[in-house]
């Protein structure tokens, strides 16, 4: 009724399956973390690029406004 060899084989298969599931779960978690890190890095890069573009646009705007005001002052001061 109880075959020691069969019990040992079943135990071996069970331990093997448990180890396999554990490794697969660890790989899944690692892949999810790496994917999230990539998404985070991409978002940081895009934010950095957008801030640079915004700063450049603001700088250009300020230069244009100052240039226009200097032109207006030069035109009004010289008769």
Notable features of this structure?
79 residues, mainly alpha, 94% helix
What does this structure look like?
By secondary structure, the protein is mostly helical. 94% of the residues lie in helices and 0% in strands. The radius of gyration is 34 Å and the shape is rod-shaped. The protein starts with a helix and ends with a helix.
Helix content: over 70%
Mean pLDDT across every amino acid position: 90
SSE series = H
* SS strand fraction: under 5%
Helical/strand content category:
mainly alpha
- The radius of gyration is 34 Å
Give the overall shape, derived from the CA principal axes.
rod-shaped
- What is the count of helical runs? 1
- How many extended strands? 0
Sheet bearing the most strands, described? none
Any low-confidence stretches, pLDDT <50, length ≥5? none
Report the end-to-end length measured between terminal Cα atoms: 118 Å
Secondary structure layout plus pairing:
Layout lengths: L3 H74 L2
Compose a concise summary of this entry.
By secondary structure, the chain is mainly α. The protein has one helix and no strands.
